[in-house]
Amino acid sequence: MATLSALSDRLRAEIGDMGRSFVETFTGDGSNKRFQLTYAPINGTNLTINVGSTSVASTAIIEEVTGMIQLAVAPSNGAVITVSGTTFKYFTDTEIQYYINTAFVDHARSTTDSNGSRATLLTLPVIDEYPLVLLAASMALYTLATDSAFDIDIISPDGVSIPRSERFRQLMEIVTTRKEQYRELCVLLGLGMHRIEVFTLRKISRRTNHYVPIYRPQEIDDHSLPQRVYLPMPDYGDITPPSTILSRDISMYSGDDFSMRYQFGFDLTGFTPKGQIRLYTQGGFAQIGPLLLADFVITKYSVNNNSVVDGLIITLPAATTANLPKTSYYDIQMTDSSGNIKTYAKGKVFTEKQVTT
Fold it and tell me: In the structure, what pLDDT confidence band is assigned to residue 159 with cuts at 50, 70 and 90?
């Protein structure tokens, strides 16, 4: 599981910007509240500032980029101010996290997790982590190159020449190398912005203007219901607002007890959950149905962990999963105390047939 902190550390390792600890002392004069560190940029979150033996870090204003510290109260004359923390060579933690988040939006715009849902930073597949860090590294190096582009070559009358533009050239060579490394990995692994995609051409009926349906090929001795394939369709410029419903496919093994957890950022007291599995979704032209296959057994549990407040556990007994088809559909709805119904999750149910009975 990728975390922002872990990816930030990997990005710092790639660009050679690992943190270094430092300790610096100042002497108060009774009036000065601003102190300039000789180290910058710094990590302001974990910075320790003591006036004598009293910690004043919680009330100080810290400029991470410049290393300037402003205390709320001027230390008395002769008081010793001790500052300790972590300094970096190029970027603050905020800047590093910005590059990671920006690279994630570009790299994982069409990436899904193991459940078929749009990947988040926490559900990003492990194989995507290094290419993501490479893309973020190229973005960070572009920033350094932009800064060095403002430097000019220095030529003195006595013939001494300092070609400061050389740093820009070297940085751009590194950026080009990192971009090529990212592109090569994406092509070979089928990831990110350079992955090779295979499309299935669709036929459109000239009489009805409807797509001709496509079904998965089946073995000659497979007499189960045909499995419809729903391929992405072009939007022809029409923009559909994103849905607030979590789209997550689930996988079961026939004849096994099934259990899955959903977590929510609000208190579920007063909400009545309900979930069903049907052979097809509701619709005017649904085939053979919508035939009800199973009702989930749903129980609530308390989490109280940061942004997660409550959760639901959906279960099915083995006797029910044994009779499920290869593909079906489900959703999870909740009714509040006012009678309002809202769907929170939906998707397909894939059931693999058992061997041992």
Answer: confident
Q: Is the pLDDT of residue 101 over 80?
A: yes
Q: Within 10 Å of residue 235's Cβ, how many Cβ atoms?
A: 8
Q: What is the pTM of this model?
A: 0.71
**Please, which contacts does 319-322 make with residues 24 or more away whose CB atoms are closer than 8 Å?**
320/294, 321/252, 321/253, 321/254, 321/255, 321/256, 321/257, 321/258, 321/351, 322/254, 322/255, 322/354
**What mean pLDDT, rounded, does the chain reach?**
88
Q: Per-residue pLDDT for 156 more than 80? A: no
> Long-range pairs for 144-152 at CB < 8 Å and ≥24 separation?
144/90, 144/171, 145/171, 145/172, 145/175
Long-range contacts, 191-199 (Cβ 8 Å, 24+):
191/107, 191/111, 191/127, 191/128, 191/131, 192/106, 192/107, 192/108, 192/111, 192/128, 192/131, 192/132, 192/135, 193/106, 193/107, 193/109, 193/135
Report the alpha-carbon distance of residue 258 to residue 350 in Å, rounded: 12
CATH 3.40.50.300 fits 245-352, yes or no: no
182's tokens: 């990212």
Residues 6 or more apart from 149 whose CB is under 8 A from it?
168
**Burial class of residue 77 in the structure, from the number of CB atoms within 10 Å of its CB (0-12 exposed, 13-18 middle, 19+ buried):** exposed
**What residues contact 129, with CB distance under 8 A and at least 6 apart?**
2, 7, 10
Please list the residue range(s) of the chain that carry CATH number 2.60.40.10. 245-352
Rounded (5°) CA angle 12-13-16: 80
